[in-house]
Each structure stands twice: as structure tokens, then as C-alpha cells.
Amino acid sequence: MPPRLQVKTEDCSPLGLYVLQYLEEQDISMNHLAELAGVPQPRLRGACFKGTCPTPETLRKLANSIVTGK
């Protein structure tokens, strides 16, 4: 089981909610997803919060990682 996340669902944007759901379904940590996507973990974590605007590059890398599973 991945470590307990410090990102709360009530603080998440729709993207953040999707990321949290994906982490749970895949039973992986945010650190591991960040590594797979090739983005720094703090950037991925920050992209999950309401009011943030992830860069197109971060979104592309994250989407590619989720779609391909690597």
C-alpha cells in the first residue's frame, strides 16, 4: 500500500481528484507516478490543488504516463 497521501480530496482540483483516484487504483505512490511521468514530485503534487494551472508540458507528461502506464 502506498504511503498515506498528504493531499486531501477537498483541496483538489478535478485533475487532482483524478490523480488521487489513479494512485489508489494502481496502488502506487505519488512519488512513483511523478517518476514515471518524468516530472518533479512537488510539481505533480502542486498540480493537484484547486486554483493551480499546471504547465502544458506537465499535463502532457502526466497524460502520457497514465495512458501508457510508463
What is the distance, rounded to the nearest whole angstrom, between the alpha carbons of the first and last residues?
A: 19 Å
Mean pLDDT: 90
The number of distinct β-strands equals 0
Query: What is the helix tally?
Result: 4
Structural class: mainly alpha
Rg, Cα atoms, Å: 11 Å
Strand/helix succession: HHHH
The major sheet is characterized as: none
Low-confidence runs (pLDDT<50, min 5 residues)? none
Question: What is the 3D form?
Answer: globular
**Fraction of residues in helix:** 55-70%
Measured by DSSP, the beta-strand proportion falls in under 5%
Task: Describe this protein's structure.
This protein has 70 residues and is mostly helical. It is built from four helices and no strands. The longest helix is centred in the N-terminal third of the chain and has 13 residues.
Strand-helix topology:
Layout (H helix, E strand, L loop, with lengths): L13 H13 L3 H8 L3 H7 L8 H13 L2
Concise description?
By secondary structure, the protein is mainly alpha-helical. The chain has helices spanning 14-26, 30-37, 41-47, 56-68.
